[in-house]
Structures are given as structure tokens and as C-alpha cells.
Amino acid sequence: MLRLTFLLRRKKGMTRAEMQDYWLNVHGPLVVSHSATAKFLRYVQVHTTSDDHSRLPGRRGEMEEPYDGVAEVWWESKEAMLAAMRTDGGREFDRALVEDELNFADIENSSAYYCYEYPQVNPTPENIVATERSSLVKLYFSFRHLPSLSIDEAQWYWRTHHGPIIRRQAQSSGILRYQQVHADEHSFTAAVNRSRGSQVEPYTGHAEVWMDRSAMGNAIPENRAASRRAYEDEANFIDFGRSVMFLAKEHVMVDHR
């Protein structure tokens, strides 16, 4: 499936809580009302939590400020997305979204990218969700690759070298689910950001990790060793200073998979 990931920063003058409330209760229903026209299979709002995210990077050093949330939309394929969005109804849907996004988001400092998922630790059925009332959280790690690598080289290393490292130590790390989401369809990404006036450089992709809070920060030797191995290998392809990490909760608005 093709996926659109839209990292959002709140409109200036709004608190995170105000932004997320408008997004969930006003903008969300607007998106849902166009689901039949836009032909998307799934729509999820990922809301950044109120945790102290400054502790997350650890050895990675200073990273970008966390976003306030992420909009995620899935289509069956690139062809399905294009067929829907190139209709009069699809174009009207996009115009309505752009107009309403300005009511709660700082679009110039937000960033969207089309992408494909590469599941790594993936229980079936795929029904692990970090809902508001559960003890689960979703770790979002959007990154840009080192300047010495091309995007293809970085994604290849991530997929073939880093992925196996995380899979092998998932249990000791408390990971319930982990997937890599690789940026792709770069011409479409450029178009969607251009139409919204975004000034943010797109990311190489992002890692998604679902964990139970009870497993986070567990100081057992196996957990510490796993964290060290992950960081040491990330340094081979990730530019930490141009990347971002935060915790979030998920609100599933549409799911027709």
C-alpha cells in the first residue's frame, strides 16, 4: 500500500492541546467525510504526548524539536491514489484540506512524504494500536540520512543491516511491533509540499516502534546493551542533528483494510 505521512507543527499561538483538539474534532471529521471520494483505506491521527521528549535522544545528542502530531493516510496503491485525487471530487477534497489545515497547523514548518512500509517485527493480525487509554505508546523516529550517503544507499543499509539488529533484540528491548517506513515517490512528495508551501526538507523515512510504557527505561543489562547496539549502528546512516524522535498516541479515524 502507498502511504502519506504528514508531520505537523501547530499553528503559532496555539498550545499543543488546542491544536490536537481542533485536529481531532473538526479537521478529522472533514477528512472522514471525504473518504469515499478520496478512496483511502485508512486514516490515523498520531498525537504527540505530553512526555518530556528531551530525554529520548540519549546518546544521539541534540535533535530537532518534536512535531505535534502526524497524519497518516493509506491507499491500496499509487494508481488508486492518483485515480481518486485527479477527479473533480479529489481536487475539491484537497482544496478543503489545505484551507482547513491553516486553522491549526504551521504548514510552512510541517513536512509530508509518500512512503512504503517494511514490517520488521509484525505480529498478526496487525492490530496493535497505542490508543489514548492503553499503556501502549508509539515511538516515532523520522530521520534524514548522512550527507555521505544517497537516499537509496541509506535506505538499503537501514533495511538490510539495521533491521536485522533490531529484530534480533526486540524482546530485550520491549518492542511489540516495529516497522520501517521508507520515503518514496519523490515527485509526488515534492508536489504535495509545494502545494502547501512547506519549507521543510523531506525525511529519508521513519521508524515506528510500539511499546508498553512498563518496558520503557528498563535498566536491565539486556535492555542497556540493546540500546547501545541500536545507537551505534544508527550512526552509520542517520544524521541525528537533522532527525526527530517523539512518543505518541493513535486515533484511528478510518480503517477499511
What does this structure look like?
The chain is α+β, with helices and mostly antiparallel strands. The chain has one domain (2-255): 2-Layer Sandwich (Alpha-Beta Plaits), CATH 3.30.70. Helices cover 35% and strands 30% of the residues. It has eight helices and eight strands; from the N terminus they run βααββααββααβαβαβ. It has helices spanning 16-33, 35-38, 78-85, 88-101, 151-168, 170-173, 186-196, 221-234; strands at 2-8, 42-48, 69-75, 111-121, 136-145, 175-183, 205-212, 238-255. Strands 1-3-2-8-5-7-6-4 form an eight-stranded antiparallel beta barrel, surrounded by four helices. Helix 1 (16-33) runs antiparallel to helix 4 and helix 5 (151-168) runs antiparallel to helix 8. It is globular.
Short description:
This protein is of the alpha+beta class. The chain has helices at 16-33, 35-38, 78-85, 88-101, 151-168, 170-173, 186-196, 221-234, and strands spanning 2-8, 42-48, 69-75, 111-121, 136-145, 175-183, 205-212, 238-255. Strands 1-3-2-8-5-7-6-4 form an eight-stranded antiparallel β-barrel, surrounded by four helices.
Protein traits:
single chain; 257 residues; alpha+beta; Alpha-Beta Plaits; 8-stranded antiparallel barrel; 8 helices
SSE arrangement:
Layout: E1 2-8, H1 16-33, H2 35-38, E2 42-48, E3 69-75, H3 78-85, H4 88-101, E4 111-121, E5 136-145, H5 151-168, H6 170-173, E6 175-183, H7 186-196, E7 205-212, H8 221-234, E8 238-255
Antiparallel strand pairs: 1-3, 1-4, 2-3, 2-8, 4-6, 5-7, 5-8, 6-7
What global shape is seen?
globular
* Coarse structural class: alpha+beta
Assess the beta-strand content as a share of residues.
25-35%
**Mean pLDDT across residues:** 94
Main beta-sheet strand count, sense and barrel state: 8 strands, antiparallel, barrel
Kindly report how far apart the N and C termini lie. 10 Å
Number-wise, the strands total 8
Oligomeric state of the chains in view: single chain
Helix content: 25-40%
